[in-house]
Records
---
Amino acid sequence: PWMFQTYVLFRPSTPRIAGEVRWLLPMPSWLLQLANRVGRRSGLASRWLRRIILTWKPHIVHTLRLNPEAWLTWQALQCISATRRPKWVVSSWGSDINVEIDLPGIRDHIEVALQHCDGFIADCRRDIGLALAAGLAASKVALEDPVPVSGGLNLDDFPAAESDHGNRNLIVIPKAYEGPYNKTVPILEALRLAEEA
């Protein structure tokens, strides 16, 4: 149960368990695909987000993911005067900067977000270097150590004996499907690391 007030662009098609949900448009579910397309083209989501920020007057806005969430947030924030604009912290989320930055049209959005944010939190050490290479000022690295969005794994908790596979077959189990990068990249990385085995 999510007990906090939530703002969405269109009325959810499934009712929420708890917490107040506010929406801009009471769109019927059969029109959602068309409404999403019109909303993207008209910048409706960024205007709605800007209205929410101006209503709430937060000191800090945190954006989780560089693509597309940080781009949406920047579209909303850039139309707020500097005196009323909250501090903006962005977090990477694994493949958003590692893989998606090379997709057509994405690099510009990520670079703009990194140039205009007030702070950056990396999902892993690799992302700090990638963010700096994409235009993030070193002074904007909010934390020297990454903060994994997943919570991370303490590798010391895994017994060393388990890494010695001997003659056993190696089985790679992919994580649950969330998106093409989340499912594929970890498998390829695991196979690369296990190549000798």
Note: The radius of gyration is 20 Å.
---
Amino acid sequence: MNEFELIQTYFRRDPLDPSVILGNGDDAAVVAQGSGIQTVLSVDSVIAGRHVPEMCPPDGFAARLMGRGLSDLAAMGAEPKYVLLSLTLPTLQPGWVDHFASRFHQLCVRFGVDLIGGDTTKGPLSAHLTVIGHVPEGGALTRQGLKAGDDLWLFGPDLGGARAYLDVLDGHQDDQALWAERYWRPEPQLEAGQSLRGIAHTLIDISDGLCQDLTHLIEKASNPLTVKLRSKSLPLCNELNDRYGRDVALQYALTGGDDYCLLASIAKGVNVPAGGHRIGMVVDAMTDQILLDDEPLPASWTLGWDHSR
């Protein structure tokens, strides 16, 4: 049973309260608030030895935690407002905590969020961040609504760098500054998400791998669809082609995850906000599938990250 089957089997339930507009199963939940706004909420985890190395630099730990969490709000088109932090520490090391807290508060100021509560405890190094934001009533973007005739747009700098940095951490590649930046300091595409309200049919952030996250959009469509991706349109991170060759570079870009770009489906002819890359299109089909340059994806590819593996 993978992560998504586990959620569907054990934790997917119809909301009891009518104020819940959107429950679990998307990037975030949406709750009616009144006064023309809705509240968007999500929680994410960073666990040493699972999502980051056991020996984790405090500023990188804070930046990765904040970037991952706020990316969920970006994927809903929400404006961030508040965060709750639960932090578990093996031992109290004042120097480590001082650097973590300093970076965390800097990021709160940068993204305009207030830390309003949380919890601390002793145990293996990990943190859980609850993010809370607002959207205008009816303005939240979701994973549901992919349609034939849509174009696929990617908003964010590039793909594959964070995955390549895992090879640096494993000692299989020489260090590369931009790959390290992509891994340790993910940049939530908040402005892009808000600019896509009322424009995109669907929106999701690329956390687990573009193809795997794209599969979530396809599965929620009302009829079978084929997505045609174009390799030449994909913004690959620096040096991927030079270090790995085209095939592995494309595999890392499409399946590696931790990119935190936004993937949007938008009807043809719509005025698209600046900064996007048109990477493919959606057509009617007999069965759901993803094609790359009109060919099926390689059978050897694992489409993305599964937290249960």
Note: Residues 94-111 form the longest helix (18 residues).
---
Amino acid sequence: LRSNYTESRRALTKLAQVVDSTDLVMMRARLAQLLSPELKKDSRKYFSYSAANAVKEVVRKLRINSGKYQITTSSVDLPVTVINEFDVDVTINVTMVPQNTRVRVGSFYDVVIPAQSKRQLEMSVDVVAPGQTTVLATISDTDGDEVVPAALLTLNSTVIDPRVTWFTSASAILLLLAAVAQSVRRVRRRGK
């Protein structure tokens, strides 16, 4: 129960760094009631789990939608949706961290999300190598501290390197020319 209380308190403290809302202050004050010695063991357990669920719902009011993306070009801008369900505007940073080196992605700084709204950001992606990668999209405050749990964006790139395309096309043209030359030789032999 103490660990639930500590996690809930930390989650609200992190969120309060970017959300200036009296609801967060009131919720954090209500958490202190769980420490009352007058609560019986069963009541404390019930209220502790109820408080943990309420904190999860409040933290979920500021989030990035997870998603799956299929990439077919070497450079593209992908839409990433950030949702703010609080009654106040929020200024955040959105850090994008790929889990491998197949792609390079851009992050966003000092993004203002209006109250009770969604905002789409254009994440620039440069594909280095084809394949699948996961990007952690993290909402952080101006100091770079994570505010809410990160969202997962799955990118699957099927980009063929232009050099491979050029080599394949050149090989196909050479094969075609060789086939034409062979056909011309056969026609000449039959004529003789």
Note: The two ends are 98 Å apart (CA to CA).
---
Amino acid sequence: MDDMALLLLAAGASARMRGRDKLLEPVEGQPLLRRQALAALATGARVYVTLPPGADARRAALEGLAVEIVEVADAASGMAASLRAGMAALPKTCRAVLVVLADMPELGEDDFRMLFNAFEGDAAAPILRGAGADGRPGHPVLFPRRCFDELAALNGDQGAKPVLAAHSDEVRLIPLPGQRALTDLDTPEAWDHWRKAQQ
């Protein structure tokens, strides 16, 4: 797996959490960001985590983990800044990158492995996109190397949507159990609702 990377996007501002940091919300007894980083490392891929400047609490949550932290100086400009910085950090030998949003608490090691295992490994391999059990497209997304330059040139806050749109006929959906590929929690109310549903 040395030639495969997992890019954990964790440079967002949690703007809708009204003072709380969603990436530090406890999930299974640890901060969400640490949980996701541990799941990423368990795949055997090289793991890169984008963080905004400062972010001391997020850095502390990753203490002792063998991840490469990528500071995103212009994180406030949108998700594309995270993608650009992450792509710039990848080694030249990397054949594919699994882009994971750090705020999706139901995703885990099994889901990441499913996408890595589905990667065909050649230059013409399709983009692999996690989907809900009902087939709705979601996250994470595995991009083969031929997409790297486009990801590195993104701007704004749309994330990788322009790249996915440009290659819509080359995207293969990988259904994940339940709503794992679709559940992201951006507000305190969403977190409270989700926690009640887990009980």
Note: Strands lie at 4-9, 26-27, 30-31, 46-51, 68-71, 96-101, 127-131, 137-144, 171-175.
